[in-house]
Write a structure and sequence with these properties.
- Chain B: One of its GO terms (cellular component) is plasma membrane.
- The structure holds two protein chains of two kinds.
- Chain A is built from 23 helices and no strands.
- Chain A is mainly α.
- Chain A has two domains: 222 residues, MetI-like (MetI-like fold, Orthogonal Bundle); 201 residues, MetI-like (MetI-like fold, Orthogonal Bundle), CATH 1.10.3720.
- By secondary structure, chain B is α/β, with parallel strands linked by helices.
- Chain B has two domains: 130 residues, P-loop containing nucleotide triphosphate hydrolases (Rossmann fold); 74 residues, no CATH class.
- Classes of the chains: A mainly alpha, B alpha/beta.
- At the A-B interface, helix 7, helix 8 and helix 9 of A face strand 4 and helix 3 of B.
């Protein structure tokens, strides 16, 4: 076992995370964290739905921003996917998706202000980058032969529509609907920077200590995500897309002088603005590096390393919850009764309640945006890295556990395979470890991007310095720091891709951001 | 256009040369059988011919057929005529076929005894049915020269003969890679034997018997 490169790499990651634990600040500083948690739980059990108007508006805006943002992003991404072989397009997409939607929102806020365009573009732009990459991959995976046998002169659009597009359509649709769910989370979180979505109402409810309103907002959000499949129907989607732009709210008008000022003054590095030349610029950059970028990068790396390993642990712990090899659904009843080898613990047949609870737990874990979770935990535990680590691990662990569990259902075990812990340790986990690592490496970049963004909440990762620079109206510094964050994400993405290739881990497009 | 010619044609698979260099001239109206054991280079030769002559009205029916499994039989056959219609017409057809195209394609499917499958998905058909759909597409496409790789391999006796008749009638010139030597001799007038990526035999079908082709296998 120790000879396996995968195992050695995993242990290396765990060791690194343990070292990081030594330097990370993981204290709970809140006065009475359990009391706060109790109040929140009470709010969830007894939500206050009396303020119907506010709830309704929050929900409507969240949906509208998600639909318009994801709709624009998917359209642009599809067009870009058609020219994705161009190096320029590929790099451009890698760049826009390396910057988190909240950073984009912070940038657009500076010149569009609280206009709906800020929220729409903050979602559409990074999503377009992701869509372009994944759509291009999906189109690439289709059979090239039908296209080759078409008569010469069939026309590009006809060729595309009849061959690759038609074959890939179900995959494109299912990926887009998955991204719509992500878009709803992004849209909700945009409220934290001032967009009129769920996060905005959540933040003010927290600030006023209205935990029953918090409970109502959270439950509403889960209900919307859980029921997505029921109301997002192929025939209804065009209707939603047409109606959504009219439901964004009016916001505040765009002041066009701000737009030009932003590009001609605000983001121009201050030494250049004051004519201090290249030497001034260098010392300015040096100052940013030592006082902000390096500490920010350090904390981002430390935090994301711990979060990555904890995510992996949670995923490995929780995937049996949705695996038929541990908790069977009804259809497996007969077979199990026949085999007559019932055992206690895991592997108990037909345990529908556990099965349902397991599914429910993972749904809640993965549909709570990490930013929202970190925000809540910060309110409960006080500022330190702990809320961020836990939030990242819960959200991403839930996603990976869900995907690994689904993958485990494709595994066929021999009829006399062992049960319980032995089945977990000998039969399933070794078989699923490769896909598990591939998924984890896929999410590494996402965890890193989220770690940076959680700085806005006051944890000293890169986002913290970006946010402070913006607070101090020093957009030139903010832009440099955002660029550094983007480069860091691209770097991690390249490293993860390299590791996946070296360990020959299979690649799956559907687990992208 | 009276002749089609290949000069010093080669095909490489990675670092390895799998075909040629070879020279070959086809007269208009010739029906050529490509024979030889599997891996000899028949498919590579067809691929080279297609690459060279696609713009001159060549149609390809590859061994893997190249159907779109998620499209109906009708649409797969219609694809043979994508180049003869404007884009808007093709896109409308994707949603709702025009009556005159259905009227053109249905009899073709009837001749190949798959008319009842007209609106079935190509991916849901059996191997023999799919092969006939690909043949129907090639016939619907029409043109100067048909390049077909094992066009009747999944069909039984009478069906394969019927399809050979249709295919050879649809194109003035045809190059057919075949492993059924008897059938090849009956439906073609020239046999080209391929061995080790080169031409090992080139003779009129009338002068050959199945026995003469045995050394090639």
């Amino acid at each position: 076992m120790w000879h396996s490169a995968t195992v050695r790499l995993s242990l290396g990651f765990v060791a690194l995370a343990i070292l990081c634990l030594g330097v990370a600040d993981l204290s709970i500083t809140a006065h009475d964290p359990w009391h706060e948690l109790g109040r929140l739980l009470q709010g969830l059990v007894q939500p206050d739905v009396s303020d119907v108007d506010h709830l309704w508006v929050a929900l409507l805006r969240t949906l509208a921003f998600a639909f318009v943002g994801v709709g624009l992003g998917a359209t642009a991404g599809f067009l870009l996917a058609l020219i994705f072989h161009s190096r320029l397009v590929r790099s451009l997409c890698a760049f826009v998706r390396a910057i988190h939607e909240l950073f984009w929102a912070l940038i657009f806020l500076q010149f569009f202000g609280l206009h709906p365009l800020t929220g729409v573009l903050a979602i559409a732009l990074p999503y377009a980058g992701v869509f372009a990459k994944v759509f291009a991959e999906i189109l690439e995976e289709t059979d090239p032969l039908p296209e080759q046998v078409l008569p010469a002169g069939s026309g590009r659009l006809s060729t595309l529509a009849y061959t690759r597009l038609h074959e890939a359509w179900p995959h494109l649709v299912s990926y887009t609907s998955y991204r719509l769910e992500c878009g709803l989370r992004s849209s909700a979180v945009l409220g934290f920077v001032g967009m009129p979505t769920l996060g905005f109402y959540l933040e003010s409810a927290f600030a006023q200590g209205h935990y029953d309103t918090v409970g109502a907002l959270l439950l509403l959000f889960y209900a919307v995500i859980a029921s997505l499949r029921l109301w997002v129907r192929p025939l209804l989607v065009p209707v939603y897309l047409v109606v959504a732009p009219f439901c964004l709210g009016s916001g505040l008008p765009i002041v066009w002088s701000n737009v030009s000022r932003f590009f001609t003054e605000d983001i121009v590095p201050s030494p250049l603005r004051h004519g201090e030349g290249v030497s001034g610029l260098m010392s300015w950059l040096g100052d940013i590096m030592t006082s902000e970028a390096l500490p920010g990068i350090w904390h981002t790396l430390v935090l994301s390393q711990i979060a990555l390993v904890l995510t992996g642990l949670l995923a490995l712990m929780f995937y049996p919850l949705v695996s038929r090899h541990f908790f069977q659904g009804r259809s497996w009843h007969g077979r199990w009764a026949l085999s007559g080898r019932r055992q206690a613990g895991a592997g108990r047949p037909g345990n529908r309640l556990t099965h349902l609870l397991g599914h429910g737990l993972l749904v809640v874990m993965r549909s709570t945006p990490e930013y929202l979770l970190a925000f809540i935990l910060l309110q409960l535990w006080g500022p330190s890295m702990l809320p961020a680590v836990v939030a990242l691990a819960i959200h991403n662990g839930g996603i990976i556990a869900h995907l690994v569990g689904r993958r485990s259902n494709e595994v066929r075990l021999r009829p006399d395979a062992p049960h319980g812990l032995v089945r977990y340790a000998y039969e399933l986990t070794p078989r699923l470890y490769g896909p598990f690592l591939a998924l984890l490496f896929y999410r590494w970049e996402i965890i890193m991007r989220e770690t940076a963004i959680l700085g806005i909440l006051g944890i000293t990762t890169l986002g913290f310095y970006v946010d402070s620079a913006i607070q101090e109206i020093r957009f030139d510094r903010a832009m440099v720091l955002i660029l550094i964050t983007a480069l860091l994400n691209i770097g991690v993405d390249v490293l993860a891709r390299h590791l996946r290739a070296r360990l020959r881990l299979r690649h799956t497009a559907n687990c992208e951001p | 256009m009276s002749t089609l010619a290949l000069t010093d044609a080669v095909a490489d698979y990675g670092q390895q040369r799998v075909l040629g260099p070879l020279n070959l001239t086809l007269q208009r109206g010739e029906r050529v059988a490509l024979v030889g054991k599997s891996g000899a280079g028949k498919s590579s030769l067809l691929a080279v011919m297609y690459q060279q002559w696609r713009g001159r009205g060549a149609a390809l029916m590859p061994q893997e057929l190249g159907l779109v499994p998620s499209l109906s039989v009708f649409h797969n056959v219609y694809m043979g005529a994508l180049a003869s219609h404007p884009t808007w017409y093709n896109l409308v057809t994707l949603a709702k076929p025009f009556r005159r195209d259905v009227a053109a394609i249905r009899p073709l499917l009837a001749q190949l005894s798959i008319e009842e499958k007209c609106w079935a998905m190509a991916g849901e058909l059996s191997g023999g049915q799919r092969q006939r759909v690909a043949a129907a597409r090639a016939i619907h496409q029409g043109g100067e020269v048909l390049l077909a790789d094992e066009p009747v391999s999944a069909l039984d006796g009478p069906q394969s003969e019927a399809l050979m008749v249709e295919l050879t009638q649809a194109y003035p010139t045809a190059v057919l890679a075949m492993h059924d030597v008897e059938l090849a001799l009956r439906f073609t007038d020239r046999v080209i034997g391929i061995a080790d990526g080169g031409i090992a035999l080139d003779a009129p079908s009338a002068r050959l018997t199945a026995q003469d082709l045995l050394p090639l296998y």
